[in-house]
Amino acid sequence: MVAVEFGVLGSIEARVDGGLVELGHARQRLLLAALLVDLGREVSIEELAERIWGESQAQRGTLYGYLSRLRRALAAVEGVEITRRPAGYVLTAGAAVVDLHRFRDLVDRARAAEDDAQAANLFGQALDLWRGEALATMDTAWAGTVREELHQERLAAELDRTEARLRLGQHLDLVAGLRARTKEHPWDERLAGQLMLALYRCGRATEALAHYQHTRRRLAKELGIDPGPELRRLHQQILTGDCALTPRAGVAPAAPVPRQLPAPPALFTGRERELAALTAGANGAGGTVVVSAIGGTGGIGKTHLALHWAYRHLDRFGDGQLYVNLRGFDPSEEPLTPSAAIRGFLDALGVASGAVPPDPDARVALYRSLVAGRRMLVVLDNARDSAQVVPLLPGSPSCTVLITSRRQLTGLTATHGAAPLALDMLPEAEAHELLGRHLGPDRLAAEPGAVAALLKHCAGLPLALSIVAARAAAQPGFPLAHLAEELAKTGTRLDALDAGDLSVDLRTVFASSYHALDTAAARGFTLLGLAPGPDISLNAAAELTGTTPARARVLLRTLETAHLIQQHTPDRYRMHDLVRLYAGEQGRHDLDEADRTRALRRLLDFYLHTAYHANRLLYPHWTIRLELGPPSAGCTPHRCADAAEAQQWFQAELPCLQAAPQLARALGWPTLTWQLPEALFNLRLRQGRPGEDLAMWRTAIEAAERLDDPAARAVTHLRLGQASMLAGRYDEARAHLEQALPLFERTGDLLGQGQAHFWLGITWEQQADPQRALLCHEHALDHYRAVGDALHEAGALNTIGWCLAQLGHGEKAHDYCEQALAINRAEGDRYGEALNLESLGYIAHHRGRYRQALEYYHQALTVCQETDSTWSEAEVLGCMGDAHRALGQHAEARQAWRQALDLYQTQHRTEQATHVQQQLNALDDIGTLTDTEGAP
């Protein structure tokens, strides 16, 4: 069943299953409010226009557009409909889904209630629906009128609830709120009388009389009137100590109202989604106790969120707030026992010391009896586990419980319906705002680069941001760049995140979670901190920890429950950057070096062997055969079943695979250091990304040189030459390719020699020298034919055709490319087929055969998209734009060039992107009057 809620008692909004519906701009939202206020009643088009623009005939066409878009936004919600009627439009929905109508219903029920306790509760539920000013931010005359009417309804409900609570003898709890309200409504005599009565019943008759005099003088001075008879009568009763002002017989003396919450977090920032989730849970509880369990890693801001929400909603908990720090992960003290926590609650609830039962179960029963029926908040902070929390849960649905813990309290969710709320890192904008609230906007504006670095290194962890801010505030004359430089060093970053106190030392915070783990989980945690890449798969974690995937899942679940890792997608796990640093530190300190080395070798062997075999599945004709040693003891590489699975595996593991060579280098394993990048090369080439891997290939060459292995050196120089060429570094590309050539000659590798000649030719092509390129490709063709490699032969034939076309030999070029196409189709190489079709299109274009060129390009584009060859796809789209432009098809040219531009920019191909942008600009300059794009 889809749950829908509409709100006008605050900002105008609609929620479906708790998620906000996009309602569009302000006037469109105001239209929804205009229909919601008169739910189920026809509102004429003139009246709607008057409500939105202040003119009954204004912008009818626009209004119809608004209605149409609102219908679409609400189309999927069962039972909600905007329909056209003869007299206008009507919004149909249950009154219970609109906060305004729910508010009015609750107020009506409260006024008809048989007893004051029930009335006060219903009034409280009604007032809890308000989220601020009604129709917030809407500034039309109609909105202002409705806002004022609703404001008066709200004030009347507040006054009625206060009357009921005064009759219940709750005057002790009302004074503070009444004082604040009288400042907002200084001329309201009923409100003034309620404050006077509450003060008198609290034994503060002098203050009650003083407030009467203050009200009398203000009415006389500002309105020229005297207080009314009701207020004068109350004044006289207080003067004479009239016994009628004593709470009526049968009303118990007011119980103590505990106010145990710590001070609110002064600089709390963001978390609006999480705050809304807590509120939604409290609003939708029905007849059960509201229990919300806020979870997250140490320093994520769980306690601050709970306290901020509590203070934002204090009016809900007029009977008091209980708070206890359960010390579940305290670095210096043992966790608090439930019995001790309840003893503190009983003290706050006014139970005399001698009346506290010694038996723990009896204490729990007394505690639950005392809070039954009372509108109270219970905050259980820093819980270690569910067992510590369960005895502290009240049994009354009038209570709300907030729990914070570094563990996922799944048992509590299963047995007590607790709503889990996991906190993640602060988004960058909120992190920036938090830092600014600590240090001031001027200091941040003065050093934007340093601020960006600080935000990056704190990685959205509120405690880290607060520590950085505290250190910066302690040295206001120091530049932030100095602190940013200190945090930039990963080896000492955690040292920089220590403000000199246990509660604000990030290492100490993480350590309390680490030391709570069992031995196996602690070992797994530290090994994960040493693993390369931003996350890790279940299978890779099993290799790292030396266990089976099933056992690894149990271990990872333990760490996930402790909020030390997060399963962000099924069977993939990640750590927060700072938690990873701490875990790595502990791994290097606590783990036996031999155990650590074996674990990391298993992991890197797993990555290499799995990647190599996946590469051969995807690119069987293009994979250089490597002499892989056997996997290390205990390593079981994964074998992908087919090319589709291999593609999925590569996409999931790519960031880890790219990080793995640096770890291999650091551990002194040169063969792994160059073979890991080789297993990725073909994939990166098809994606158009090898130019991003220059640093990885430089590391690979350094490793190959250490091995003194000519074959390894030849391959790594070839790959770095290819990557440099694709990155536009042509001089560097030629230098490496020319070093690769004699190395391949030395090892007798004819195919490698052909590859070096071929890519030298590609490099000369990119430098607009087709004559030199042609000679290189002819050398490559000779080598390919000598070894009988048909697919490489086809590649050389294609590039020879391309060069001939650039030199003006169109017919001969066409023949070469047709030969290449025939070979690739016979061999089933679709990537090569796409390149041939692109070349044939280029040749046709330069022979003036534009429509034939487009036919080739469309075929090439289809193959590129089917083979995920985004590098060539960009080239083909650019050429398609050229052909369309030559035919005068400007709209089609613009569409093709825009797609090409997106790909070029994604691939960081600046030169090509600039050229395409110039083409687009030139097309805009000549006008697009004949184009149809953008027409309604």
TrEMBL record:
GO terms for biological process: phosphorelay signal transduction system; regulation of DNA-templated transcription. InterPro entries: AfsR-DnrI-RedD_regulator (IPR051677), BTAD (IPR005158), OmpR/PhoB-type_DNA-bd (IPR001867), P-loop_NTPase (IPR027417), Sig_transdc_resp-reg_C-effctor (IPR016032), TPR-like_helical_dom_sf (IPR011990), TPR_rpt (IPR019734), WH-like_DNA-bd_sf (IPR036388). This is Uncharacterized protein. Keywords: DNA-binding, TPR repeat, Transcription, Transcription regulation, Two-component regulatory system. TPR repeats lie at residues 714-747, 834-867. It comes from the Bacteria. Residues 98-239 form the Bacterial transcriptional activator domain. CDD domains: BTAD. One of its GO terms (molecular function) is DNA binding. SUPFAM superfamilies: C-terminal effector domain of the bipartite response regulators (SSF46894), P-loop containing nucleoside triphosphate hydrolases (SSF52540), TPR-like (SSF48452). Belongs to the AfsR/DnrI/RedD regulatory family. It holds the Pfam family BTAD. Residues 18-91 form the OmpR/PhoB-type domain. It comes from Wenjunlia tyrosinilytica.
